[in-house]
Amino acid sequence: MQRYIMTEPVFSMTINGQDYLGDGREAILNPATGQIVGYMPICTEEGLNEAVAAAKKAQLSWAKVSDAERRDSCNKIAAIVTEHAAELAELLVKEQGKPLKGLGAEFELGGCAAWAGYTSSLDMDVKVLKDDDEGRVEQHRVPVGVIGSITPWNWPLMIAIWHLVPAIRAGNTVVIKPSPNTPLSTLRMVELINTVLPKGVINAVSGGGHLGALMSAHEGIDKIVFTGSTATGKKIMKSAAGNLKRLTLELGGNDAGIILDDCDPAAIAEGLFWGAFINGGQTCAALKRLYVPDNLYDAVCAELVTLANNMPMGDGLDPTTALGPLQNKMQFDIVSELVEDAKTRGATILTGGEPLDRPGFFYPVTLVADIEAGARLVDEEQFGTALPIIRYTDIEDAIAQANSLDFGLAASVWSASRERAQTVAKRLEAGTVYINQHGALAPNVPFGGVKGSGIGVEFAQEGLNANTNIKIYNMVG
């Protein structure tokens, strides 16, 4: 519930179906204006213990409800999110910065409903491994227990749904902690979801990194699902070892895209642009390194510059805005530092390259040419509105460079020939390789990374199964 104690609302956590204000509050700022959007309540360790206890108690009964009822719960979530989509989208714009229209907040709310609805259709059937005169062996999928969800600030609502809905569909209960940069829309969404679910099934707590560390070490939490940086994922793995928590970690990416020499630059330019700059580049699976052959290099650069220079950037509540600000000062500083490092190395700034002279964390689309491996903008994940465009002569070199980093979330190959593209795609080290597109996600397609980009998969049947343990019934007689 929003409590208008101050000019801006103080949002509430939800524990055991009830509002919980915790101990203290923190202002959440609009990254486009610097104005206060609302106040995040701060959860104490005692509050977290209450949330885990509520989830543990609720799980005992939730695991016993019928499969049909759990399917119905997913559809109810889709319906309540859709009913309140306008409210949630506006709040999301204010705290995250993304545009309301286009591939922004309304798009994200649509994704929430789509993933929840699709998950309701998945089966958890018993698999018969043996059935003969000697006996019968059945494989069942059973809940893990209490799942701790820790979500990021880039797609806060959609990623929350990715964590929450498969968990409860499989009979688990959840304690979710949203990013302290964008907690308000998630707290409100969980409050709404609690109007259609039994109390304690989904609980929401909020606070900083200390709270996340308490969750990953908590003996009452049986699994952690985390989306965020590789560095934080490694910390979670260490602290989760105490009770051998199950883990699904969707971590950072520095996705490479390789253009082959038979492409039409004009035909692929828009796909390249949005592959790189959807959500202002603040997407784990965005295109973050682009390798272009000599014969197409200048033409590809020119096409991307034209798109960048005609893409309106501003406050997300303005319906003409296509790109909003970066979400927070830390990310703004990272993008600025990586571009400045590129300049010192002699790279060419084709467009952008300096922060906009206005309030908020606005950094324009920045295309950087004449840059090579070793530059921070190539080797590190920028997670923002800057793209290095790397020239290559030999496709073998491009493949080697694409595979050279400890990231493997996604990659893409662009070619007029699907056969040629697939030949290259088979050699790229990534959980997903796109051909003539980049970053397309769907609820019926498993998604996850390799190397430093994560452990496990989400979405589709495999993602639902990741929220279960296998239990075997081995019977004779």
Can you tag this structure with a few keywords?
single chain; 477 residues; alpha/beta; Aldehyde Dehydrogenase, Chain A, domain 1; Aldehyde Dehydrogenase, Chain A, domain 2; 2 domains; seven-stranded mixed beta sheet; six-stranded mixed beta sheet; 15 helices; globular; disordered N terminus
Short summary:
With 477 residues, the protein is α/β, with parallel strands linked by helices.
In words, what does this structure look like?
This protein is α/β, with parallel strands linked by helices. The chain folds into two domains: 263 residues, Aldehyde Dehydrogenase, Chain A, domain 1; 188 residues, 3-Layer(aba) Sandwich (Aldehyde Dehydrogenase, Chain A, domain 2). It is built from 15 helices and 20 strands. The protein starts with 12 loop residues before the first strand and ends with a strand.
Layout of helices and strands:
Layout: E1 13-15, E2 18-20, E3 25-29, E4 36-41, H1 45-62, H2 67-83, H3 85-96, H4 105-120, E5 127-132, E6 135-143, E7 146-150, H5 156-169, E8 173-177, H6 184-193, E9 202-204, H7 209-217, E10 223-227, H8 230-239, E11 246-250, E12 255-259, H9 265-277, E13 287-293, H10 297-309, H11 329-344, E14 348-351, E15 366-369, H12 376-379, E16 386-392, H13 395-402, E17 410-414, H14 418-425, E18 432-435, E19 454-455, H15 460-465, E20 468-475
Parallel strand pairs: 7-8, 7-10, 8-9, 10-11, 12-13, 12-17, 13-16, 15-16, 17-18
Antiparallel strand pairs: 1-2, 3-4, 5-6, 6-20, 11-19, 14-15
Helix pairs in contact: 2-4, 3-4, 3-6, 4-5, 9-10
